[in-house]
Write a structure and sequence with these properties.
By secondary structure, this protein is of the alpha/beta class. The strands form 2 sheets. A 7-stranded mixed β-sheet has the order 5-4-6-7-3-8-9, sandwiched between helices. A two-stranded antiparallel ribbon has the order 1-2. α6 links the parallel β6 and β7. The chain contains 8 helices and 9 strands. The termini are far apart. The longest helix is centred in the N-terminal third of the chain and has 17 residues.
């Protein structure tokens, strides 16, 4: 049977998503977050995809041990540019500013660079930190998420955004839902009925 290169496994759900999907996981405990993160990265590596993680909640040694248990050398994959780890604040809050234009350009460049390196597909997982509320430009978070959905149509990076329900308000979580076409609910992939079309969301904000 031919492998479907237009679909991607997330690693922690049975369902597959189109490559370039924009997905949100709202988690409520640390183990849930880490389990999804590790399996998402592992699934990408097993599919030959280039994978990147933006997180301040995990370190290279944890990744090294986990991938070793799956007979994968983290250091070898890192050297081959198949996997990278960067801190959330380092990526999103450069110079203590959140700049959607810079982030979108970074992802577009990363996608093209990955294709040039010969990777068949690309995936990114990133956790948003509550500190964004006090960062210059932080009020543009949902503008960024909405524009990201549009960017991924032409730059199909399978993107999983993690939000901690314990540190974001109910109102913020509702806005999160409005800008993600797919959500993870208790480990299950759901087509989000609350999501607004990017143009509609941006016009309203």
């Amino acid at each position: 049977m031919c492998k479907d290169h237009s679909m991607a496994s997330l690693g922690f759900t049975d369902e597959k998503v189109p490559i370039g999907a924009h997905i949100c996981q709202i988690f409520s405990n640390h183990n849930e977050r880490i389990d999804a993160l590790l399996k998402f990265l592992l699934s990408g590596l097993q599919a030959g995809e280039r994978t990147t993680c933006f997180s301040d909640m995990i370190d290279e040694e944890t990744l090294r041990k986990f991938f070793s248990s799956q007979n994968i050398s983290y250091d070898e994959r890192k050297q081959n540019k198949a996997i990278a780890l960067a801190g959330t604040k380092e990526v999103y809050f450069q110079e203590n500013v959140f700049d959607p234009d810079r982030m979108l350009n970074t992802l577009s460049t990363y996608h093209q660079e990955s294709l040039d390196l010969g990777f068949p597909a690309v995936r990114v997982i990133g956790e948003m930190m509550p500190e964004i509320r006090g960062i210059s430009g932080g009020d543009r978070l949902f503008e960024y998420e909405s524009r990201l959905t549009m960017l991924l149509r032409d730059n199909p990076v399978t993107t999983l955004c993690q939000y901690d329900a314990n540190v974001f308000s109910g109102a913020a979580i509702m806005d999160v839902l409005k800008v993600h076409p797919l959500i993870i609910v208790k480990g299950q992939l759901v087509h989000n009925p609350f999501c607004l079309l990017s143009d509609d969301f941006l016009k309203a904000h």
